[in-house]
Amino acid sequence: MLLWRLIGRNNIFMSDGETWKRHSRIMHEALRQTVPMGRFVSLVQTTFNIIGDGGRVCWSELSHRYTLDAVATTVMGYDFEALAKPEGSFVQKYHKVMAAIASPAYVAFPSLERWLPRRAVRAMVDDFIGDFCTILDEKRRNPGNDVITYMFQEPEMTQDDFRDNTIVLFIGGHDTTAGALSSAVYFLARYPDLQEKVREEILAVLGNEEPRIAHFANTPYLNAVIRESMRYNTPTNVTVPRISDLPLPVGDIVIPPNTPIALNMAAAHHNEEVWRNPSAFDPERFLRNAKDDANNWVSFGVGPRRCPARNFSLYEQRVLISMLLREYRCTLPKDSIHRDHLKNGFSAFALSLPEGVDIDFARVAPSMTP
């Protein structure tokens, strides 16, 4: 698939062995140094400027713009202004590239790229990669407080390493979190009593303070809502396929060597042998059986190859949802296409991305804020 041409193979998701260990160490250290709470807060305030005093908002579209700016400014140190200028050239180019790569026929039958090569799409992909290389060159000249700058401090990293890791973080870091935020706010809007519980917790813990990491150690209900939302509508349905060199026993089955294997995380999250009533949206399951359910929760994958940016994504969600509920009451429109259940749009890459999620926002009464 042309997706591999775009993200390359010199990155934390596609590499193996000692190369992967090096990428993993560098990526974890860079992300650990950059949990940009202040930047998240600033982007939420920009989001509020768009929502204004309330009204109907296509939340699934707005959450994509928020997460795109969050990843771009903190990973790349570059502002694409997706919130302020949704029609900007880079944002539009990204959507065109991904739409072209995700042609269903070419995803279902990747060998078509050999038989009927799409030269125009390849040129579009290469041009988009060139834009990232230009940003990397600019970042070398003007370092900042971002993931790329920290990666540049590693002498073992090559130009291909920088390019491929930047692209894969950019692509993987905003679509999945946008899907998670679309789902979480949808459920809060659908269940008003649940929304009020989370709002009361946020007001008690944060008050009018700017969100900090320490706050969210004391927001179990908010954390449970995020976990349950990501369980119910897992943003990434399957892991990147892996291949074992040896026969691999799984229960009573032995998988032959060189067989591509992927973990179906959505199926794992709806396994009735593991989860009680998995078809119900029940955040309190993470409060009742916190340890057991936490071990079965695999939204970011499992093992050493779990998503390295999981904490980044969780804090990004916590900041937005906590500030949003402090400012607005969310309601699901009566004519919503998602009235009875949440519907995802088509995704060629097995992502759960709710589409057309309209939410009605109204300012929270002043008496409700401390």
Automatic annotation (TrEMBL):
Keyword rRNA-binding recorded: no
CDD domains, sorted: cytochrome_P450 (cd00302)
Binding positions (heme): C307
Cofactors, names only: heme
Pfam families, per database record: p450
Keyword terms: Heme, Iron, Metal-binding, Monooxygenase, Oxidoreductase
InterPro entries: Cyt_P450, Cyt_P450_CS, Cyt_P450_E_grp-I, Cyt_P450_sf, Cytochrome_P450_monoxygenase
One example GO MF annotation: monooxygenase activity
Pathway(s): Secondary metabolite biosynthesis
Family label: Belongs to the cytochrome P450 family.
Name under which the protein is recorded: Docosahexaenoic acid omega-hydroxylase CYP4F3
Record organism: Trametes pubescens (White-rot fungus)
